[in-house]
């Protein structure tokens, strides 16, 4: 079998950090992988230069991962279709609001045997709510399902406690790959990501892995709010625990049959911890409370073009829960949306936690 060609679709903070890993593993396994990794770059001008040219000439993403060298076998390509042409493995890693538009541009261009893996933490809310599967779920669609539906290819997921700057520093961490066809797709995907400092477990319970990744961003917003209100670590621990309980209940309701063990993988409790202490969602939500500025303003001021996915995910989760009449069962998720939307004061969050069904 000829070596597989890999394309990374996305070049933000996480996309660039993962490019360091994928650039290295593809070079290490020449029998399995073509060493040239194409990375689709959403072109922009940074300090008067095209970002793609800076990446190709200086091997650094000066906007989204400054100060870190990208392997020279990672090649920035600005034409999306060209970046995927002939690729056997597609790594999706863009903020989730851009997935649909990206996939639609690729329709008819991706062979059915292409393997895809999504590193995207978010969900898709289908407002039309058509189709048996989304109707049952009040419009909920996983990002992997959205990609699969549009491109007709199998999609695995990779989620974990992986703050991109720390991964880019090569600090030790773990991640979980969720693969419905574990025996078929798992070994190659593990080879693509597993390194001494980025340890991969592959599990079959892919829906749970993906939902853990999406929902922890909502919990991180709650942690940011309590930080902004000046509460300490005990409150944050309660937020993490109640967030985990809501996550397990959410998964059980919308995707029944999950394996409890999956919540103990890196994608579960570990990602909740790291994001609630060190993530961007936590940071912008803390600033939202402390400054009284809008979420869009604090995101712009603090993240330099990066994106906090929690507020958007909270809205999508809320709309869907509301439609299926379940919002009262998920007071933390509901409160995060209402606070982000300006419908509830941040200080009221603790009342929601105090009256949580877990305490009844
Ligand atoms: N940054 C992190 O620490 C981690 C992020 N993730 C997840 O990975 C996904 C991607 O996150 P990041 O790489 O951090 O992205 P990011 O937050 O750095 O977002 C910026 C990226 O969005 C792109 N972009 C802006 N406008 C666009 C448009 N109209 N169309 C397409 N792309 C556009 C920019 O070019 C840039 O590549 C998210 O779902 C995030 O939750 C997962 C693990 C860690
Ligand atoms: O997913 C992440 C860590 O695993 C990153 O979280 P933030 O998007 O909140 O920075």
Automatic annotation (TrEMBL):
<dbReference type="InterPro" id="IPR006168">
    <property type="entry name" value="G3P_DH_NAD-dep"/>
</dbReference>
<feature type="domain" description="Glycerol-3-phosphate dehydrogenase NAD-dependent N-terminal">
    <location>
        <begin position="5"/>
        <end position="183"/>
    </location>
</feature>
<dbReference type="GO" id="GO:0046168">
    <property type="term" value="P:glycerol-3-phosphate catabolic process"/>
</dbReference>
<dbReference type="GO" id="GO:0006972">
    <property type="term" value="P:hyperosmotic response"/>
</dbReference>
<feature type="binding site">
    <location>
        <begin position="10"/>
        <end position="15"/>
    </location>
    <ligand>
        <name>NAD(+)</name>
    </ligand>
</feature>
<feature type="domain" description="Glycerol-3-phosphate dehydrogenase NAD-dependent C-terminal">
    <location>
        <begin position="205"/>
        <end position="350"/>
    </location>
</feature>
<feature type="binding site">
    <location>
        <position position="164"/>
    </location>
    <ligand>
        <name>NAD(+)</name>
    </ligand>
</feature>
<feature type="active site" description="Proton acceptor">
    <location>
        <position position="216"/>
    </location>
</feature>
<dbReference type="Pfam" id="PF07479">
    <property type="entry name" value="NAD_Gly3P_dh_C"/>
</dbReference>
<dbReference type="GO" id="GO:0042803">
    <property type="term" value="F:protein homodimerization activity"/>
</dbReference>
<dbReference type="InterPro" id="IPR036291">
    <property type="entry name" value="NAD(P)-bd_dom_sf"/>
</dbReference>
<dbReference type="GO" id="GO:0141152">
    <property type="term" value="F:glycerol-3-phosphate dehydrogenase (NAD+) activity"/>
</dbReference>
<feature type="binding site">
    <location>
        <position position="309"/>
    </location>
    <ligand>
        <name>NAD(+)</name>
    </ligand>
</feature>
<protein>
    <recommendedName>
        <fullName>Glycerol-3-phosphate dehydrogenase [NAD(+)]</fullName>
        <ecNumber>1.1.1.8</ecNumber>
    </recommendedName>
</protein>
<dbReference type="Pfam" id="PF01210">
    <property type="entry name" value="NAD_Gly3P_dh_N"/>
</dbReference>
<feature type="binding site">
    <location>
        <position position="280"/>
    </location>
    <ligand>
        <name>NAD(+)</name>
    </ligand>
</feature>
<keyword id="KW-0520">NAD</keyword>
<keyword id="KW-0560">Oxidoreductase</keyword>
<dbReference type="GO" id="GO:0051287">
    <property type="term" value="F:NAD binding"/>
</dbReference>
<feature type="binding site">
    <location>
        <position position="121"/>
    </location>
    <ligand>
        <name>substrate</name>
    </ligand>
</feature>
<feature type="binding site">
    <location>
        <position position="42"/>
    </location>
    <ligand>
        <name>NAD(+)</name>
    </ligand>
</feature>
<dbReference type="InterPro" id="IPR008927">
    <property type="entry name" value="6-PGluconate_DH-like_C_sf"/>
</dbReference>
<dbReference type="InterPro" id="IPR013328">
    <property type="entry name" value="6PGD_dom2"/>
</dbReference>
<dbReference type="GO" id="GO:0006973">
    <property type="term" value="P:intracellular accumulation of glycerol"/>
</dbReference>
<comment type="similarity">
    <text>Belongs to the NAD-dependent glycerol-3-phosphate dehydrogenase family.</text>
</comment>
<dbReference type="GO" id="GO:0005975">
    <property type="term" value="P:carbohydrate metabolic process"/>
</dbReference>
<feature type="binding site">
    <location>
        <begin position="280"/>
        <end position="281"/>
    </location>
    <ligand>
        <name>substrate</name>
    </ligand>
</feature>
<feature type="binding site">
    <location>
        <position position="98"/>
    </location>
    <ligand>
        <name>NAD(+)</name>
    </ligand>
</feature>
<dbReference type="InterPro" id="IPR011128">
    <property type="entry name" value="G3P_DH_NAD-dep_N"/>
</dbReference>
<dbReference type="InterPro" id="IPR006109">
    <property type="entry name" value="G3P_DH_NAD-dep_C"/>
</dbReference>
<dbReference type="InterPro" id="IPR017751">
    <property type="entry name" value="G3P_DH_NAD-dep_euk"/>
</dbReference>
């Amino acid at each position: 079998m000829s070596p597989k060609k890999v394309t990374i679709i996305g070049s933000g903070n996480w996309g660039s950090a993962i490019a360091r890993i994928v650039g290295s593993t593809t070079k290490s396994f020449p029998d399995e992988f073509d060493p040239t990794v194409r990375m689709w770059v959403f072109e922009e001008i940074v300090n008067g230069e095209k970002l793609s040219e800076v990446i190709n000439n200086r091997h650094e993403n000066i906007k989204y991962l400054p100060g870190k060298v990208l392997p020279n076998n990672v090649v920035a390509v600005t034409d999306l279709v060209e970046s995927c042409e002939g690729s056997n493995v597609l790594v999706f890693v863009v903020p989730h609001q851009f997935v649909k538009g990206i996939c639609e541009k690729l329709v008819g261009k991706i062979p059915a045997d292409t393997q895809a893996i999504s590193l995207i933490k978010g969900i898709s809310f289908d407002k039309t709510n058509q189709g048996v599967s989304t109707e049952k779920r009040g419009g909920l669609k996983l990002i992997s399902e959205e990609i699969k539906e549009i491109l007709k290819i199998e999609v695995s997921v990779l989620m974990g406690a992986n703050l991109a700057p720390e991964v880019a520093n090569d600090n030790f961490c773990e991640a979980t790959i969720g693969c419905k066809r574990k025996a078929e797709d798992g070994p190659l995907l593990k080879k693509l990501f597993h390194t001494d400092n980025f340890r991969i477990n592959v599990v079959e319970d892919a829906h749970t892995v993906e939902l853990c990744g999406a929902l922890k961003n909502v919990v991180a917003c709650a942690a940011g709010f309590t930080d902004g209100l000046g509460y300490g670590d005990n409150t944050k621990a309660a937020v993490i625990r109640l967030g985990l309980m809501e996550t397990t209940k959410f998964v059980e309701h919308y995707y029944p049959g999950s394996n409890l063990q999956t919540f103990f993988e890196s994608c579960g409790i570990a990602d909740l911890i790291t994001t609630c202490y060190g993530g961007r969602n936590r940071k912008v939500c803390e600033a939202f409370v402390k400054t009284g500025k809008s979420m869009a303003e604090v995101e712009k001021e603090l993240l330099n073009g990066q994106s906090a996915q929690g507020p958007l995910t909270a809205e999508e989760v809320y709309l869907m829960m509301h439609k299926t009449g379940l919002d009262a069962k998920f007071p933390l998720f509901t409160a995060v949306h209402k606070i982000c939307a300006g419908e509830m004061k941040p200080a009221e969050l603790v009342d929601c936690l105090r009256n949580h069904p877990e305490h009844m």
